[in-house]
Each structure stands twice: as structure tokens, then as C-alpha cells.
Design goal:
The chain has 417 residues and is mostly beta strands. It folds into two domains: 314 residues, no CATH class; 96 residues, Carbohydrate binding type-21 domain (Immunoglobulin-like). The chain contains no helices and 28 strands. It has a 16-stranded mixed β-sheet that branches. Strands 22-21-23-27-26 form a five-stranded antiparallel β-sheet, with no helix packed on it. Strands 25-24-28 form a three-stranded antiparallel β-sheet, with no helix packed on it.
């Protein structure tokens, strides 16, 4: 049976008690070429060391460092087994693309009691820098200064900043944050695609400058045997002095998931120091058999293995949009999230309105396509795009933006009205 217990704070506890669901043999796409992962002490996995290629290629020559697949936007490790001892914490240094983490494990995966996998977003600060997210998440806005006002939060649910001192947005994800300039919700309960939380904006309040918290990261662990979950996976958003980042995403897949009751899955949107709460992240578990108790905040989406080969990656038929050009400059097929040295874009020499060309695939013609511009300093703006040519299967859209001084992040989004 499955039991759910609702508490007033924290928001949700999920308890799993001895469930047996219709069996599907699980085919895990792992050749074990990253070897066994069994750290004996605290370890930071440097995702920037991953070789770039197809995620399913043999990685023996780069064993233990993973493969960054830009087409999937993920750093993928294909382990033979995983065993994280009690007291050991695993952290990550982000890949320059900001991609999330995927572990495909041939055999068993053991996250033992008091072991921690930490993909939490960094807390906001007052030093002027952007708070760094967990892998797959998005940055929080910096504190800024009197000469460089703080920016909005980054990501699809990033908190907006209007320019008013007391209007500041926290990050959203599965749920909308509790302030009216919060970002929109996004994603789905299947956690496909795998994506993390969004950042909170920087804030000026009573002439004090506060940085926003970053979004929690995203991780998928798929075990061909038994996944023993007695430790903690922390995908919380970062706490903001002004506005916090939203929780990230956790997806666990195995033939059997076992816990003694010590297992903890967290993707919380923390409350900022000013009292606003960020949005919750997403947690999903898929297994034929569940034994024991796991605490999950927010409550997990629990399901059986619906197929021997679960949907790991977004299907090609889903709607997608991408920025093709900014002015006359073509964008790369794999733009990285390096705001300190934006080498992917040519500087626009004037401050005149600039056209942005967008390619859309499988986007219905009655949907909205918008571009959000988040500068390194100052308020964000959102611009509606208009369809120029094509149909629902493939189309070209255009929007005109007003460039701002300094570096800006552009993010395009399509959604049903």
C-alpha cells in the first residue's frame, strides 16, 4: 500500500510502504565504461572534465569523468555500480553548459545512511557575484550596487525584477513562488526533460543590496538492480537575502527501490530572508517494487516501470524553440551559460532595436512564443514574438528587442495560451 501524510511545514512528506507493482524488466543503457563509483571520502565531481560526444558511446578512455552530450543537454555517467558510504558527501562542479547529471548504473546503486548527494543551489550573497546553481539549474541575480542595479533571476521560472525597490521575484518551478513578480511554472511530473530550478532576483531594499538564491540542480539515477536509498539527495534552491531560488529535480528509476526509513529526497524552495517562498521542485520515482520508507519534500510522483525502456530523453515530436540569430549574428547550436565571457555572441555596436530570429519545431500556430531578456544588471523584460513563415511542423518567428548595456541572457519559450 502507499500512504501519504500531509504536514503544515515542511509542505509535504511522502511515505512509501511495501509496494509491489506489475513487473517490467528494466533495460538500463549502461555499458559500465565509467567503472564503479565508490568514493571513500567526500568528493567533488568536476563535470567540466566530461568528454563531449554521444552519451551512449564507450567512455573507457575517459572513465569516471562522464560524457557531455549537447543534443541531450546532460552529463551522463555509465557506471557498473554505485556505493556511497555513510558520511560521504558527493558534490559537483558545473559543466560550462550548466547541464544536469545522469547516472546509468548497470547493477545496484547504494546511497547509504548519512551519505549525501548535494546538488543544492548556492545561497544569494552581497558580494556582487551571481549565485551558482546546482547542475541543470539556473543562477540567482547578483546583489548589484548603486552603479549596477541587481538583475532578475535566471531560468524559465526566474524571479522578475521590475525596477521598484520592493518588487522582487523569487524563482518558480513545479509551483509558483509566493510573490507577484515570481516566474512562471514549467516542466511536468515525468521530469522529462531533466531540468533544475530557477533563480531568485537581486533586490535593493532600504538602500541595502541583496543577492538572489540559485535554483536547485537536477539528477537522474537509473539502476538495473536495486537502488537502496538511505542517504539524502539535496536539490533545494538557494536561500536569497532578497529572493530565493526554486527547488530542482530528482528522478530515481530501478527494478527495486529500498529504504530503511533514513532516505531523504529534497527539492524545496526555501523562504528568503524577506519572507517570500520560492517554488517547489519536482521528484519522481519509478520501480517495480518499493520497500520501506522514504521522506520526500515535495511529495514524489510514484509510478511503476511502465516500460522496459523508460523515456529518458524528450521525444523528437515535442514542441521546441531555439534562437537562430541575434541581429546578423548566428547563435551556436550549443550555447553555453558563460556570462562572464560571452564568447558566443558578437557585441551589438549600437543600442538600436535588434531583431531576434527564432526557429520553432512542432509548435502549434496558436501558441505564444516569447523572449525573456535578463541583463547582468537591471530589470528583465519579456517580448512577444510573431510568426514570420512556416506551419506547425516547422516555423520561423521574429521578435524585436532593445539591447541593454553590458551582457544579457536571452531565453526563448513557447507555451499554450
Amino acid at each position: 500500500m502507499t500512504s501519504f501524510v500531509r504536514a503544515t511545514a515542511p509542505p509535504l512528506f511522502l511515505i512509501l510502504l511495501s509496494i509491489s507493482l506489475p513487473a517490467q524488466a528494466l533495460n538500463v543503457p549502461s555499458d559500465g565504461s565509467d567503472g564503479a563509483f565508490a568514493p571513500s571520502a567526500n568528493v567533488q565531481i568536476d563535470l567540466s572534465q566530461a568528454v563531449t560526444g554521444n552519451w551512449n558511446q564507450d567512455n573507457a578512455a575517459n572513465a569516471g569523468k562522464g560524457i557531455y552530450d549537447p543534443n541531450k543537454w546532460a552529463v551522463v555517467f555509465k557506471y557498473s555500480s554505485v556505493d556511497i558510504p555513510g558520511g560521504v558527501t558527493v558534490t559537483f562542479k558545473n559543466h560550462p553548459s550548466g547541464a544536469p547529471v545522469v547516472w546509468f548504473v548497470q547493477g545496484d546503486a547504494n546511497i547509504n545512511a548519512n551519505a549525501v548527494i548535494n546538488i543544492k543551489g548556492a545561497d544569494g550573497n552581497q558580494s556582487g557575484g551571481l549565485a551558482e546553481p546546482g547542475p541543470g539549474g539556473f543562477r540567482g541575480g547578483s546583489a548589484g550596487s548603486a552603479t549596477a542595479p541587481p538583475p532578475a533571476g535566471f531560468g524559465p521560472g526566474g524571479g522578475s525584477r521590475t525596477g521598484e525597490q520592493d518588487y522582487y521575484g523569487t524563482g518558480s518551478y513545479a509551483t509558483r513562488a509566493t510573490y507577484f513578480t515570481a516566474g512562471p511554472v514549467y516542466g511536468n511530473s515525468q521530469v522529462v526533460p531533466l531540468i533544475g530550478g530557477s533563480g531568485g532576483c537581486g533586490v535593493v531594499y532600504n538602500n541595502v543590496y541583496y543577492g538572489g538564491g540559485a535554483g536547485g540542480g537536477a539528477i537522474m539515477i537509473c539502476s538495473g538492480g536495486t537502488l537502496t536509498m538511505n542517504g539524502t539527495i539535496n536539490a533545494d534552491g538557494g536561500t536569497g537575502h532578497g529572493a530565493s531560488g526554486s527547488g530542482g529535480a530528482i528522478r530515481l528509476i530501478a527494478e527495486t527501490i529500498i529504504s530503511s526509513g533514513a532516505g531523504r529526497l529534497y527539492a524545496r524552495g526555501p523562504q528568503s530572508n524577506m519572507g517570500t517562498s520560492a517554488g517547489l521542485g519536482r521528484i519522481r520515482t519509478e520501480a517495480n517494487t518499493y520497500t520501506g520508507t522514504i521522506t520526500s519534500i515535495p511529495g514524489a510522483s510514484i509510478t511503476s516501470l511502465l516500460s522496459a525502456s523508460p523515456v529518458y530523453w524528450p521525444p523528437t515530436v515535442i514542441p521546441s524553440v531555439s534562437i537562430a540569430k541575434v541581429g546578423e549574428v548566428s547563435t551556436p547550436s550549443d550555447p553555453w551559460a558563460v556570462l562572464s565571457s560571452p564568447d558566443h555572441f558578437t557585441t551589438i555596436g549600437t543600442m538600436q532595436p535588434t531583431a531576434v530570429e527564432i526557429n520553432a519545431v512542432n509548435v502549434p500556430e496558436d501558441w505564444n512564443v516569447v523572449i525573456r531578456i535578463v541583463p547582468f544588471s537591471g530589470p528583465d523584460t519579456t517580448v512577444q514574438a510573431a510568426k514570420v513563415s512556416g506551419d506547425a511542423s516547422a516555423s520561423v518567428w521574429s521578435a524585436t528587442i532593445a539591447p541593454k548595456m553590458g551582457v544579457s541572457s536571452l531565453q526563448v519559450r513557447a507555451y499554450k495560451p
